[in-house]
Amino acid sequence: MADQPLVLGIETSCDETGVGIVHGTTLLADAVASSVDEHARFGGVVPEVASRAHLEAMVPTIDRALQEAGVAAKDLDGIAVTAGPGLAGALLVGVSAAKTYAYALGKPLYGVNHLASHICVDQLEHGPLPEPTMALLVSGGHSSLLLSSDITSDVRPMGATIDDAAGEAFDKIARVLNLGFPGGPVIDRYAREGDPEAIAFPRGLTGPRDPAYDFSFSGLKTAVARWIEARRAAGEEVPVRDVAASFQEAVVDVLTRKAVRACKDEGVDHLMIGGGVAANSRLRALAQERCEQAGIRLRVPRPKLCTDNGAMVAALGAEMVARNRAASDWDLSADSSLPVTDPHVPGRDHDHVHEVSKENLYP
Ligand code: KG4
Ligand code: ZN
């Protein structure tokens, strides 16, 4: 245990200011300050509001994480930060903070990929990731199937959404049903009391000639909205629970079907599900059922680790240190469209780390 890296991770790609601290694959602290309430009245995340909230929350959240973990900043082995993808202005706050702390403390800096972090976080819950692992990442900003044989260096996209992200569809349908934002948790709750087979909503991209691993939720979203409008126009009451359950079933049916198929086609026997939508109770249950039938081991982190957080960034940073990956350069910049195939942003010259004064400039 003693030689495991102690890493602090900073996540600011969307509306959560997350700071996590890990010791290898052990979680020591997971401090999150969310600006979700400030976005609620707009029905979605407002980038400028998010950036400002990150700026205000950053130092207090870092202090809280250090306190929670009971570690001194000078004892860290590295600082990791989400370099992308995400909202440019929001990412910039995290990257600037990470650089400042890393430089002041004389620690290596690791700019890492948000999507690879969502996968790597599972190590904190279920131990080292099997290699290879298939990952289904579903959140408000992304829906992808990724295959990784080494989370620090090899992430291969199998498929992705061609329009809306899965979480976005939950948020939009919740808005149509006047259930507030974010929509996922509330639809999940209503769906528990509804009939998933009450309404046959379309399953996007599941035709024989459709791409096997890509997703589409915009047709479903329109179908649900039209169905609700027709009820309202006829002066009929909308059966919210049945709509929620039937919509949710259409989403999770497609997600799990394609994920299991990708595992089978690639001969991969481990599937992990991450991202905010992985908190969905029906997705977890159906994935478990289908994986069992197919002889696939399912790994889903607990909901708090599925939504955006700093621990996932720290987890991937620790893996970068453990596998001797090159640290990032001091001119690391936020990249709002960092490709999923880049688990981190390696520096041109790893030695720069040693040029930094090892003096502790931060108490
Ligand atoms: O990963 P995340 O926290 O942020 C992004 O990177 O987007 O995911 C947030 C998304 C939102 O769209 C939210 O509605 C959805 O995850 N979500 C859920 C559930 N909890 C959160 N969707 C379905 N069921 C849930 N229980
Ligand atoms: Zn995310």
TrEMBL record:
Binds 1 Fe(2+) ion per subunit. It comes from Streptomyces actuosus. This is tRNA N6-adenosine threonylcarbamoyltransferase. Keywords: Acyltransferase, Cytoplasm, Iron, Metal-binding, Transferase, tRNA processing. Belongs to the KAE1 / TsaD family. PANTHER family: TRNA N6-ADENOSINE THREONYLCARBAMOYLTRANSFERASE (PTHR11735), TRNA N6-ADENOSINE THREONYLCARBAMOYLTRANSFERASE, MITOCHONDRIAL (PTHR11735:SF6). It is found in: Cytoplasm. It catalyses: L-threonylcarbamoyladenylate + adenosine(37) in tRNA = N(6)-L-threonylcarbamoyladenosine(37) in tRNA + AMP + H(+). Fe cation binds at H114, H118, D308. The lineage of its organism: Bacteria, Bacillati, Actinomycetota, Actinomycetes, Kitasatosporales. GO terms for molecular function: tRNA N(6)-L-threonylcarbamoyladenine synthase activity.
